[in-house]
Design a protein that fits this description.
19 strands, alpha/beta, Rossmann fold, 8-stranded mixed β-sheet, 7-stranded mixed β-sheet, 2 domains, about 375 residues, globular, single chain
Length: about 375
């Protein structure tokens, strides 16, 4: 089986889909691994490092795609890359399949068997393949550093000859993987941390990391499939906003992480709330790419509204490319082990990990939820 890794072409993408340690394991398992020249340079992995573990270095994209049985990437394939995929080839990576319907259709038309790891079933056995959780870990960590850098406050309490510096107050909205990592990072930096999530069952996890959990007066059943938060009713969302508004007083840094799979991010901080926030405070909106949790968020930009800095970082995992690549590559390796046997491609669609992640196969869109989303869009 030939596994190929093209160089990422998306602007500002610094990660690489496989790292030398993972390539070494795949080669030992009987696969042939091809790496496009300089594919790992921006993540700190040289062609020499890949060659030492048995990878073949190809001179360009055309060569790395040629005769490839499996192509793995970080970003979804471009139109040009889809055209280079061999009919019957397998693509593994992130596809944004619930919203990127044009790409899904193109892959089906090309006869590519594609696996979108965003669709990975939320089961215990699949945790080691969960790229969303891996990248959310990086995002939650980095969001705190961005917030600390943009804030006029020092995070820890300091006792100095010039007096005592009180610790920064940080509010984390959303206690999923990114939120929990943000809590842990902010606490390590010495901040006083509070967190809110519509799912009451995360209270214990939040408190175990040293943060206070903001409890709603009225419990809301907001846990969706796979442990994600589901979309709230209008009345529930109104109560949620009231609770958040009351929690923003004297907060120095807010980190928002709330997202709903396949839908725009919910608005958690309104413009009215921004007007009532402490002057000079900072909002780091990790949902910027899906519309944002904060009024005024602009993806990829820092804006100032009502004397509050609003950061809308995009592709934040790429800002820590070495470890983000290592984590992503290990997720990919575990998934590849599900679709190969004795160094050969072996697609077992009776395996729920394989079938649940497959988006297109033999010229058809085969993922039920993606197919339904595409049909609904075509009818609207």
């Amino acid at each position: 089986m030939i596994v190929s890794v093209p160089k990422e072409t998306t602007q500002d993408e610094t990660r690489v889909a496989l790292t030398p340690d993972v390539v070494k394991r795949l080669v030992a398992g009987g696969a042939t691994v091809r790496i496009e020249h300089a594919a790992g340079d921006r993540a700190g992995f040289t062609d020499e490092a890949f060659s030492k573990v048995g990878a073949q270095i190809t001179p360009n994209a055309e060569a790395v795609f040629k005769d490839a049985d499996v192509v793995v990437k970080v970003q979804p394939p471009t139109d040009e890359e889809v055209g280079r995929l061999e009919q019957g080839a397998v693509f593994v990576g992130m596809l944004q399949p619930f919203t990127n319907h044009k790409l899904v259709s193109a892959l089906a038309s090309r006869g590519v068997t594609s696996f979108g790891l965003e669709a990975l079933p939320r089961i215990t056995r699949a945790q080691s393949m969960d790229v969303l959780s891996s990248m959310a870990t990086v995002a939650g960590y980095k969001a705190v550093l961005l917030g600390a850098s943009a804030s006029g406050k020092l995070f820890p309490m300091l006792t100095t000859a010039a007096g005592t510096v009180v610790p920064a107050r940080v509010l984390i909205l959303g206690a999923g993987v990114a939120g929990l990592q943000a809590i842990a990072t902010a606490r390590r930096l010495g901040a006083v941390v509070r967190a809110f999530d519509v799912r009451p069952e995360v209270k214990e996890q939040v408190e175990s990391l040293g943060a206070d959990f903001i409890v709603a007066e009225e419990a809301v059943e907001a846990s969706g499939e796979g442990g994600y938060a589901k979309e709230l009713s209008e009345d529930q969302h109104k109560k949620e906003l009231e609770l958040i508004a009351n929690s923003l007083k004297d907060i120095d840094v807010v980190i928002t992480t709330a997202q709903i799979p396949g839908k725009p991010a919910p608005l958690l901080i309104t413009e009215e709330m921004l007007q009532r926030m402490k002057p000079g405070s900072v909002v780091v909106d990790l949902a910027a790419e899906t519309g944002g949790n904060c009024a005024g968020t602009e993806a990829g930009k820092e804006v100032k509204l009502h004397n509050v800095k609003i950061l809308g970082p995009v592709n934040i995992a790429a800002s820590t490319p070495e470890d983000a690549s290592r984590m992503y590559a290990r997720n990919i390796q575990t998934f590849l082990m599900q679709i190969m046997k004795d160094g050969e491609l072996n697609l077992n669609f009776e395996d729920e990990v394989v079938s649940g992640t497959c988006i297109t196969h033999e010229g058809e869109v085969v993922h039920g939820a993606v197919k339904n989303a595409m049909n609904e869009r075509s009818e609207s």
